[in-house]
Design a protein that fits this description.
Layout (H helix, E strand, L loop, with lengths): L2 H6 L6 H29 L2 H31 L4 H30 L7 H28 L3 H30 L8 H35 L1
Helix pairs in contact: 2-3, 2-4, 2-5, 3-4, 4-7, 5-6, 5-7, 6-7
Length: 222
């Protein structure tokens, strides 16, 4: 049994792992509310968009706070050095999922929704739904990481497939974007919409990056 697996065996006594569970919950919540914000934008419900954006901001801030707390706990826990570094990298990558969800909502709240073609919002919503499925698969992988590394690896493979689907949706979104009539919407809005699509794609990308780190930890566990 590896040193790290032995440490995981004491997981109920380890505060860092409870903090990681809370951190992951906030990360997933941020992605969920990003999807809800885009759905509200498509419906033209600006009040609901604002509420979703606020929740994403709160989840991202809490995730940041928990990330710092986790780093402090891991530094103080008796954890194998290699395992400590791997877990820190895992938390940092998880945190980027929330960061990009927040960035996407920052962009969304600056866009004048009446000027946005619905077909673009529809494409963004499809991407966000795909990114949410990626986040759910990341959560399953991390849940299994503690007890069933082989199953965690399978979930990591699922994340990779889901991220590829988001990439395909991103390609479709850019094709719709390129087909818009000149001058509608305005150039500033077009720039913001391009940035929004990029941010949503980055949510899925960081889900995949997180699972790359899960694979590293699975190797250490064996």
């Amino acid at each position: 049994m590896s040193e790290l697996l032995s440490w995981f065996g004491r997981r109920r006594e380890v505060k860092a792992l409870k903090l990681m569970e809370d951190h992951l919950a906030n990360v997933v919540s941020a992605v969920e509310d990003l999807e809800r914000a885009l759905d509200a934008a498509l419906r033209g419900d600006e009040a609901d968009v604002a509420a979703c954006v606020r929740r994403v901001a709160e989840a991202e801030m809490e995730a940041d706070r928990l990330r710092r707390a986790i780093m402090d706990e891991l530094a103080s826990e008796v954890v194998p050095v290699i395992g400590r570094e791997d877990l820190m990298h895992l938390v940092k990558r998880m945190d980027m999922i929330a960061d990009w969800s927040r960035e996407a909502t920052r962009i969304l709240e600056t866009i004048p929704l009446p000027e946005v073609p619905k077909e673009i919002l529809e494409e963004c919503l499809k991407m966000a739904k795909g990114a949410k499925e990626c986040a759910y698969a990341v959560r399953r992988a991390i849940d299994k990481l503690l007890t069933k590394p082989d199953e965690a690896l399978r979930e990591a493979d699922t994340v990779e497939r889901l991220e590829e689907q988001v990439d395909a949706l991103y390609k479709e979104a850019r094709m719709v974007f390129a087909s818009l009539k000149p001058g509608c919407p305005s150039v500033p809005v077009l720039i913001l919409l391009r940035d929004l699509m990029n941010a949503i794609e980055n949510v899925a990308d960081w889900c995949e990056n997180t699972c790359d780190q899960i694979r590293v930890i699975c190797v250490v566990l064996k």
